[in-house]
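Running log. JK asked me to keep both predictions on one page so they can be read side by side. First protein, sequence followed by its tokens:
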Amino acid sequence: MKSARSKYVADLEAKKEIEEKQKQEQLKLKNEEAKKTEKKNELVYIDKEIQLKTGDLKVAEDRISEGNLKLQKALRETKLSRKDIQEAQSLIDMGIERKRKVEEDLVQLNKKRKLLN
């Protein structure tokens, strides 16, 4: 009788061990799937940020061009207008600073993107 009970207990323990291993494997698969989804979402986010920054870069370049045109126009005038020159230079400075910042952001985003791939 003792051996039958021992066998029953051993079988029960083996069954519990198998169930526990299955649960652990399922949890591992869920975690891997969650990581893949998280990575995919982060790549989508980074791609959207890159698009936005590219648009910001275009705006900054437009400000620089606009400032240059205003400066050229002011310099062609017979009488130089200090105000016009200052406005033009302000646009140029703002565009250059913004362009520098956006380019730095783009470099960082591209580095993150490379790490995720």
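And the second, directly underneath as requested:
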Amino acid sequence: MTRLGFTRDLLRPAGGDEAHRVTFVELFFDLVFVFAVTQISHHLIATPSFAGLVQTIMLTMAIWWVWVDTAWVTNWLNPEQARVRGLLIALMLGALLMSSAIPEAFGAKGVLFTVSLVAIQLARGIFTVLAFAHHRPDNAVNFARITIWAAASGVFWIAGAFAPPEPRLWVWLIALAIDFCGPVGRFYVPGLGASDTRTWNVSGEHMAERVSLFAIIALGESIVVTGTTFGHLPLSGESLLAFLAAFAGTVLMWLIYFNHAQRSGTEHIVHASDAGAVARVAYTYIPVILVVGIVLAAVGDAVVLESPSGPVAGGAALVIAGSAVIYLVANVLFARSIGGPWLVVHLSAILVLVLLTVLSLLTPLLSALALSWLSNLVLLLVVLADELLVRRKRHRSTAAQGI
């Protein structure tokens, strides 16, 4: 392995701010995913059906996997190096092509979508093998395994692009399953074995910040949908209430994760003995659930703004209240993954939101606007309860130290 690869050291410094800092080129790379998340939410708005919902979730997971794999790589590679910067710009171009194809991914542009996706995954993997070869041979072997898994899933991604729309979804779900099973199986490859998570010596601080920034990108899509949709509506008391409901929902989702959970997660992974194992669960698998919840919430905001009055339809109820359920489930799982307890308040809120959704599906009592505000009320109670619990914990800790 050491006979191959770049002789120049392209890795981040082992210590100091450079080891953890998110660079400007990484933020520049993220701009494509602002567009990608917008494309995904608009895909469901344009195809309001169960099939459209499944497609939207699948597309969100695919986009997330492209982004998070790159976040792992830039955890080790130094984006200030010209070659790494060139890699990110090339990946950015591929991601832009992939994102542009999202509206017709299940139509005429399926080949563009999948070829771009597979090219990104393979190019990144091969480049990282070459970057690690001289300096960290064990990590080079890890990325050789990862690249082999990417090639295996790539066969199904590309094969699916040539299938009719309905079979295409199933073939792509197989590809996605391969991608998501890779880290669980530690990328086992016959002859190369499985990766050791202890060699995944990630910067916990960097990984936590990168995932938090992606959550901000996804929340930003809710703001874009809210502003754009409201801007095309005639001004009325009802449309203003719908606008305020959408904005309040976005703020509440931000508070639920960023008030305390984000900080707790950062502290946990920074001090973890096996940061790679923590990052695999808390910052690779669970955040995609969080992002799906945010994307669906953006669609729900558009539904409420477009049709605030009248009985809420079944699909609308699922995205308005169901998105909050998914978001809270992600927060519960995140808390457990960083060593926290089961969040009883969140679980109770999930139950209430499920009941609200069922009530909306069975009876015509609630309008979309009413369901939106009721969902926001539940989220507000979660925020207040979280704050109260944290303050009590701090008070007990301060009292104990004073004894």
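Observation for JK regarding the second prediction: The chain has a mean pLDDT of 90.
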